[in-house]
Amino acid sequence: MSAAPSHAMVLAAGLGLRMRPITLTRPKPLVEVAGRSMLDRALDALAAAGVGEIVVNCHWLGAQIAAHLAGRAGITLSPEDELLETGGGVARALPRLGDQAFYVVNADILWRDGAVPALERLRAAWDDATLDALLLLHPVARAVGYDGVGDFFLGADGIPVRRGTAESAPYLFTGVQILHPRLFADAPAGRFSLNLLYDRALAAGRLGAVVHDGDWFHVGTPEALPEVEARLRG
């Protein structure tokens, strides 16, 4: 890609059930970690990458997200009366995301860049002719606050391979990616997961991956907050 994506979507509509009781009164993207909300950190990274137009979806306590973003330029809200999951949420926002590849970032994760910002590394690795989706992966062994078993292997050609029936896989999906609108051709209506479209892209040989070389943090529970904050401040 010759230029960085000008549009992005931030997924901020989750319920944050594991973060209760904090998320009983505050949406998870607005939970502050080391003095700044996870949503603001995602938006700051996108702004630094040159993104001027950002769609933010919301559902649980969405009025708080709307009020929080009222002073930010270039933000369009996409409220969801019913949760549409990751795929349905992006599909609904497509008319506002332009006709070129765009970033999608989860608002409930944190990352710290390596020598080159992660979004810039994704942009540099994007090939519009051969890819429909490009995922930022992270080594499970270096993830902070993560208790899962991983999502992908990487083939010798750098192509991601699903964990499938294996007990574990060495890489997790970070929630940071570039997608092209054509990925959503023939996507189902309503609620669905982006995993459906990743599998389609993988089958067509049009799913790529970049391995993150910085830090990645999963703030899944209130008990995880102190550890993540200590690592961020360190």
Automatic annotation (TrEMBL):
<protein>
    <submittedName>
        <fullName>Nucleotidyltransferase family protein</fullName>
    </submittedName>
</protein>
<dbReference type="InterPro" id="IPR029044">
    <property type="entry name" value="Nucleotide-diphossugar_trans"/>
</dbReference>
<feature type="domain" description="MobA-like NTP transferase">
    <location>
        <begin position="8"/>
        <end position="133"/>
    </location>
</feature>
<dbReference type="Pfam" id="PF12804">
    <property type="entry name" value="NTP_transf_3"/>
</dbReference>
<keyword id="KW-0808">Transferase</keyword>
<keyword id="KW-0548">Nucleotidyltransferase</keyword>
<dbReference type="InterPro" id="IPR025877">
    <property type="entry name" value="MobA-like_NTP_Trfase"/>
</dbReference>
<dbReference type="InterPro" id="IPR050065">
    <property type="entry name" value="GlmU-like"/>
</dbReference>
<keyword id="KW-0460">Magnesium</keyword>
